[in-house]
Amino acid sequence: MSTAATQLLFSAELGLFVVAVAGAVLAARPAILGADRAARTLLATGFVALAACAALRGALVVDRTGDRAGLLALRLSGVALVALGSLRWAGDRQGRWLLLAGLAVVAGAEVSGGVGGVRGAAPDLALAAGAALLAVSLVASGRGSLPARVGASAALLLLVAVLGVSIAVSVVLARNVEDEALRRYAARASTEASVAAGAGRDSLTQARVVAATLRGRVAELTVLADSRSAPAQRAQARTNVEAQLGDLGGDRALALPGPVVVLTPAGAPEAAAPATLARSTRLALAGSSVATEARDQQSPRQAVTVAGDTAYAVGVAPVVVTVSGSARFAGVVVVARPLDATYLRVRAGSAEPVGLALATARAVVAGAGELPRPDLITATADPVLAADARPAGTRAGWFLVGRPVVGGGGLPDLALVTAVPTETVQATRTALLRALFLVALGVALLGTVLATAAAERLVGGLRRLAGAAEAIRAGDLDARAAVDRPDELGRLGATFDAMAGSLRSMTDDLRRAAADEARLRGRLEAVVSGMAEALVATDAAGRVTDVNRAAEALLGMPASELAGRTLAEAVPFSQTSTSPGVAATPAVPLLPVPGGIEVRQGSVSRRSGGDVPVVVTAAALVGPSGEPAGAVLLLRDVRRELEVERMKTEFLANLGHELRTPLTPIKGFASVLRRRDVPRAQQERIAAEITGAVDQLERVVDQLLAFATVVAGRLDLQREPVEAAVVVESAVARWRERAEPAHPVERAVDPAAGVVSADRAQLDRALDELIDNAVKYSPEGGRVVIGAAPDGTGAVRLSVDDEGEGVDPEQLERLLEAFSQADGSATRRFGGLGLGLALADRIARAHGGRVTGESVPGRGSCFSIVVPAVDGSTGAEVTAPGSDPVDVTPS
Fold this sequence. Notes:
This protein starts with a helix and ends in a 13-residue tail after the last strand. It has 23 helices and 24 strands. Helix content is 52%, strand content 18%. It is of the alpha+beta class. The protein has six domains: 3-144; 198-341, Beta-Lactamase (2-Layer Sandwich); 345-424, no CATH class; 531-635, Beta-Lactamase; 644-696; 704-878, 2-Layer Sandwich (Heat Shock Protein 90).
């Protein structure tokens, strides 16, 4: 794996590890990622699995090719667990979709790289993209928790820092490893080039030894040097020289490593050892530049050169013989050491195993060890031979270093190339990157833990502040944050607690004030609600804000419908004119002049129909700054007052009529008696008429006095047991004389009527009022039945039945009121003050009883006095059920 690919894997897996650790930390906290414990467990387990897989692969412990099934199973299980946990997601929806997208990308990257066989950077790029999506999801979902936000931000910054530093360090380490390898291989190449060049020097030494030995062969060398020598002489001389060379080659001390060729001064290879040396080799060595130069200069030379297809370390030494006392150049000795594959194999295994090659710019002459293609070797050798360069680098997965092999003072003919596969440093690089990844992993993990702990410490005080604020919001004003820290958060906590104390004090004051206000408001509302008068309040715009129950009843609408309406809509008021004959003025505005109070009389229209006479008192409301704040209206229903006024008017008219009726005959008869003499018989008749009129007048006055006494509460009852039958018999006796023959008076007494406790005189008065009405309202005559019977409730019913005109049943209750008559008009048929039934009812109630009535128009009426009976065994009074308490107060 290349350095770039390793760094990409390093970055992707480290990023996924940090994100997975952060996810596990967030998943362990309630209500951030998982909605319940099961979801949090699944999420945390899945993130731990993803972190473990990232750690194993990032540390180069496993890879997709070596442990494909295990790596795939671990990562996909983590993805599946996190996906299942997200079904009960507590974060926002966007964060969940980002999480699922990131998981899908991570799973796709793992499947494509492990099962799909995709090679290169694509799977790791996809893995990095998935980790980024997961990081964005966690940041988005942790926004609701300050520790999560602080921890996520710190982890993200730490990840960026660690990734940056780690990538930079990994680049430097990888480069250093490669540079160190190149330096090592360059040194090896230089060493091997020097050794090869040294082989030329060794060959030169050996050539000198051979040349010195051959000086004793003056004759043979002279024959060989003379081209005019006979062939037989030349052959014999060659044989002798080659024999000498053979002896030298067999000498262990000299140990000639390769062929030896003896050249004549003309350059012809006349002798060689071994004798079987190929002629082509002989010619190649003889024609080499080093041999030619040595022969021309008659001086020793050395070189590493190519002869034919073989590289040789060549040493050339001149052979000088003494003939006739003078030195003569007899040729040169060429000693060649082959630098072939055998030589290079020995050299390649002498230290760190490398591939060695000797090459020209066009071909590889010899090689040993693991080597790249020949073109890569010649491409490395070319700049060495052409420009005396020192190439060292990597190409096509190989470390290639070229060095010149210089055996003499001229330009090199060969380059020595060392070749080592770059994979040889992979283990070193892997170990370094693994150590770096583990260090980065530890730093990231430690940084995340420390950031989370710091966030928890920082947010612990804030959480206590938030909890105290929430408790105060819920109503616990005694809650305190109690943040005991020397920093700004501690000062904030102290300020908050002081504020909470002030709030508690202020709240207590407000509660006391509110309680006082509530009591006052309750009293005011009770007063307003209990008012008989209708009350309506408006705001400054004239819209109704408050009404009481009396207003709801008066206007015929509930308060919910009245609220918000304009005053004209809610209270349709028509003012009554004070001028006779002038009609009422409708739709009169009721809003008073600011600062004033107005009183108006008129009527309001009800929703159900009909008008109600009212007296309106309107007052303006003024705000604190004197601005208009609305109005309050008091509407008094005057129907009862008008009814009383009408009844009073009718009563006065009736009273005048009732008084005038008996006074008229009295006055007339008195005038007759005063102006003329009247016969005695006529006087007696006039006296009888005057007496009857006086009795009638006395009855009217007596009725008025009795009613006034009862109403004033001055009725002093002298109660005693009285038999109901006796009361009935007495009444029948009184009224038979007065009512018959037009109205036969009958009795109907139940033997079980029993005894009542009553004031006999008052009970007779009440019964007489009922009998008087029965006679009065039966103008055509008819029976009047006076009866007594128990009513089944411990009381006695004294009843009066007539066969008169009767009355409308709906008017029965009204007839019990004072001055009330069925027909109260001035043209009514029957006289009276309208006090009979009212007086009888009040007397009955004074006895603890009541007056009841039944009537059928045209067929008669039955009115009864129900009074308590006396218990026969104890003599105690029994109160009639349903009777009202005794009430003899004025009304």
